[in-house]
Design goal:
single chain, about 400 residues, alpha/beta, FAD/NAD(P)-binding domain, 7-stranded mixed sheet, 6-stranded mixed sheet, 12 helices, about 35% helix, globular
Length: about 400
């Protein structure tokens, strides 16, 4: 394909700019449209591992990502008396904290800085209508302007509006029975460079993580059936969160107070996207819009970047988009299915209902963090190659 091939990408988060980077490298004319008025630089910690790490290395941005590390030194399990029950240092095997731990907004900014000269960004607009013809995709935007493109790719998140315009209700949003809220709170003297995990009775978990901006990234999750919370107003959602936090102990009062002080509380039902197909004609989707694995896997960023790299590569080596899409799906879908397969008991085991269940979780964490278990784990890994969920072949596209 040559530079006359115009591609429109919806979403300027991670998957979209990564796709834009590689498409521009292969000579495509790329436009990224973003609903927000500017880059959305908020968000929580992300880690880039395995194949994703290989891709950022190829993009020449690995050193910048490592330099923007959050400074988190590991994970501690805390009990109701604020005592450490278990500790998992960042340098340990199977650590919760990765070397390439970075805030979402910092990664978005790095990707933007490395694509802004080769990709045309349009902020404050979104797609409202799509009409596919034999040779192009006609798109109408929220300001009533229109445009013609050879291809359209949705990369605008788990609740993608562009996906609905392309596929309707065909993709399934599979709710996992877990609600989660994320927001940024002021740092206190009592905060450390450790991520701190607290399990409370009533199937509730609080997580406080340090960042490199002088603040703390707070997360609160709780098990629940689908209560329709996402259709409620921000005020109603904040009320729900405070009710769920009430009586949880540890830092619950602090988190409740900061909910009222915070205008950017992101509240969502943790869900996976299950789509029987990712492409329709000249339109398609990647990243969370196509195959969100949920934050529970720790693989969302890696999936987004791997998918973007592979799709751009297949489009560069095929003369017809249909062949590129088919080759991409054949390569990518087994990887997605492997990543989306959650371990038994997730997320329920980590969110016990009773005090006894909380004790069991903390004691299990302490056992896993103990020196004998760590030594046995290290010995087993030294004797056989560990196969991880982020194993996928990354061909070199010319």
């Amino acid at each position: 394909m040559n530079s006359k091939n115009k591609v429109l990408i919806s979403g300027a988060s991670i998957a979209g700019p990564t796709l834009g980077f590689w498409l521009a490298k292969y000579g495509f004319e790329v436009t990224i449209v973003e609903r927000s008025q500017s880059l959305r630089l908020g968000g929580q910690n992300l880690d880039i591992r395995g194949a994703g790490r290989a891709i950022v290395r190829m993009m020449g941005i690995e050193k910048e990502i490592l330099a923007a590390n959050t400074g988190e030194i590991g994970l501690q399990f805390i009990n109701c008396d604020n005592e450490v029950e278990a500790e998992f240092p960042a340098e340990g095997s199977g650590s919760f904290t990765s070397e390439a731990e970075i805030l979402r907004g910092d990664l978005v900014n790095i990707l933007y800085e490395h694509t802004k000269n080769d990709v045309h960004y349009v902020f404050g607009k979104y797609i409202t209508a799509i009409h596919q013809g034999p040779d192009k995709v006609e798109v109408t935007f929220s300001d009533n302007e229109s445009g013609s493109f050879h291809l359209l790719i949705a990369a605008d998140g788990v609740r993608s509006a562009t996906r609905k315009l392309i596929f309707g209700d065909e993709p399934e949003l599979k709710f996992l029975g877990l609600y989660n809220a994320w927001y940024t709170i002021p740092r206190l003297e009592s905060d450390t460079q450790w991520a701190r995990w607290y399990t409370a009775p009533g199937s509730r978990v609080m997580l406080l993580r340090p960042d490199n901006h002088g603040t703390i990234r707070a997360s609160f999750s709780f098990l629940s059936d689908d209560k329709g919370y996402l259709s409620q107003s921000d005020r109603e959602q904040k009320k729900v969160l405070k009710e769920k936090l009430s009586g949880a102990g540890w830092e619950a009062e602090r988190l409740m107070k900061e909910i009222d002080n915070n205008s950017e509380v992101y509240f969502d039902g943790i869900s996976q996207v299950k789509a029987p197909r990712w492409f329709d004609g000249r339109a398609g989707m990647i990243g969370d819009a196509a195959y969100c694995p949920t934050p529970l896997t720790g693989m969302g960023t890696t999936l987004a970047m791997v998918g973007a790299y592979l799709l751009a590569g297949e489009l560069s080596r095929h003369d017809h988009h249909e062949d590129a899409f088919a080759a991409y799906e054949k390569r990518m879908r087994p990887f997605v299915e492997k990543v989306q397969k959650l371990p038994p008991g997730v997320p329920w085991l980590a969110h016990p209902k009773s005090k006894l269940g909380v004790t069991v979780v903390n004691k299990a964490a302490a056992l896993l963090a103990s020196r004998p278990v760590k030594m046995v784990s290290k010995l087993l890994r030294s004797k056989e190659k560990e196969v991880t969920k982020d194993d996928i072949e990354l061909p070199v596209f010319e």
